[in-house]
Design brief:
This protein has about 210 residues and is of the alpha/beta class. About 50% of the residues lie in helices and about 15% in strands. It has 10 helices and 6 strands.
């Protein structure tokens, strides 16, 4: 039997990490050799020591985001291929991961077949982006230039936008994200500027009239 593809999973939710591990280990081509629940120096050192073929990286992991941690992984283990995983289905996040050295990106809506395809593709040095991201990217290409482009937003601004959609106040959002109310207000202002919208009312109209999945 040929050598199994070795994999380390980065996810700060134990249940999610264990689920991915069980799912991946169910295929005889793969072997999960480690799980990291954070992006501490100890976790990066594990990658350096084990030199896995693939790292599956949750982009929202702490204390260093998966986007930034990807740079560290590639620095310490250049031969390791990184696949970004996120609940966000906006192409901007996939672009940022690929720019930082990842070769793959799947969303948490992706199925088992897509994850397996991603692992096999990046192992061969090929870029893999899941169908959901590809479809959203195609939609953006054909949208009118005047349509607000959510891919301009940062990861934190997306988080704030999600809570705005749920009807939370700046104070409530601040508590959820462990930020000051002033910082949330700055994020709200930046969101309006980047989306070229005049006020919160126009923002809410945009959110509810579009097909955004945030």
């Amino acid at each position: 039997m040929s050598k199994k593809i070795s994999i380390i999973i980065f996810d700060d939710h134990n249940l999610v990490a264990e689920m991915w591990s069980d799912l991946i280990n169910s295929d005889e081509r793969f072997s999960v050799i480690g799980i990291c629940n954070d992006t501490s120096d100890k976790s990066i050192a594990l990658v350096k020591a084990q030199r896995p073929d693939v790292v599956i990286m949750d982009i929202n992991i702490q204390p260093v985001s998966g986007i930034d941690a990807t740079k560290q992984v590639k620095k310490e283990s250049p031969g390791t291929k990184v696949i970004g995983v996120s609940m966000h289905n906006q192409p901007s996040f996939a672009k940022r991961m690929l720019k930082n050295g990842a070769l793959g990106y799947v969303t948490k809506s992706s199925n088992k077949a897509e994850m397996f395809e991603a692992i096999l593709s990046v192992t061969l040095g090929k870029v893999y982006v899941c169908k959901e991201i590809q479809e959203n990217l195609s939609k953006q290409v054909f949208e009118d230039d005047e349509t607000p482009d959510i891919s301009k937003l940062s990861e934190r601004e997306i988080d704030v936008l999600k809570f705005i959609k749920e009807g939370l106040s700046s104070k409530e959002i601040a508590e959820k994200l462990f930020l000051s109310s002033r910082t949330v207000e700055v994020h709200r202002s930046n969101i309006l500027k980047k989306l070229n919208l005049k006020n919160t009312a126009s923002l809410l109209k945009f959110i509810h009239n579009s097909s955004l999945d945030i």
